[in-house]
TrEMBL record:
Pathway(s) the chain acts in: Amino-acid biosynthesis; L-methionine biosynthesis via de novo pathway; O-acetyl-L-homoserine from L-homoserine: step 1/1
UniProt GO cellular component terms: cytoplasm
Family: Belongs to the MetA family.
GO biological process terms on file: L-methionine biosynthetic process from homoserine via O-succinyl-L-homoserine and cystathionine
Residues with site note (Important for acyl-CoA specificity): 116
Principal subcellular localisation of the protein: cytoplasm
Protein name per its UniProtKB record: Homoserine O-acetyltransferase
Catalytic activity: L-homoserine + acetyl-CoA = O-acetyl-L-homoserine + CoA
Amino acid sequence: MGVEAMPIKIIEDLPVRKQLQQEQVYTIESSRAISQDIRPLKILILNLMPLKETTELQLLRLLGNSPLQIDVDFLHMSTHKSKNTATSYLQKFYKTIDEVKDDYFDGLIVTGAPVEKLDFDQVGYIKELRSVTDWAQSHIYSRFYICWGAQFALDYYYNVEKIRLDEKLFGVFPYQNKEASHPYIRGFDDVYHVPQSRHTRVDYEKIKTIDQLKVLTCHPDFGPDIITSQDQRDLYIFGHLEYDRDTLKKEYDRDASSGQEVQLPINYYPGDNPEKTPLFQWKSHGHLLFNNWLNETYQNTLYDLSKLPEL
């Protein structure tokens, strides 16, 4: 008999729930979950992306494919006025750091954000983000930073510089598995494909000098993709294994229709023909990474989260 996926607990009436149910990603509402005698994993998602529902759906698909019960809460920056998401939506489905500051969580996911061309100090909510990052050291067991979120965290923790690329890294690229036995990339192929969409990179030479960091996967030209701290409580990824098949297509179509001179995503469309359906080359590794992260968090987190050791 196979192991069934447990439901993820989400707030009542979250709009993407209907789509998740259609995809047979199981969810459970708070009113039902509270009656179950289960110690679920508590995951907090700091969603910095402008299209909140798209990112919610991508991440919940991956978190929901697990035999563990996951309780998910969403966090937003109270010091940022969203242009793409109604305030009423954020008030109903999201929390602020003031609302969760006395709570403890097993895991935190910090998404990317479309602000990578700005210096960190130019980002309007950077002070609040730094406060959340400090709070997470004592209130969250495992932290998972994605794309710009990873660049920010590495700069904040270790002074690893963010460097502007001459041209945008845009497409799907092969990365090499350098630490096949590491639990975060258990099951990864020797070479796997990753969607990238960014204008910046991190200083790889600086990372090599930091004993607290381990590079798990790497590209010979573009540098690392997945990095972890030696204690495995912090995970960083610069690519987007959570992306849907058509995420890069939507980005390309958006920029092309606005009159920008935009390059075709590399290694994405069959025959580089944008009229053809893009190849979905990273889906299995996205599920592997998130399942591995959840499993490692479950195996190592404390039952009483209030006793978490601060780094």
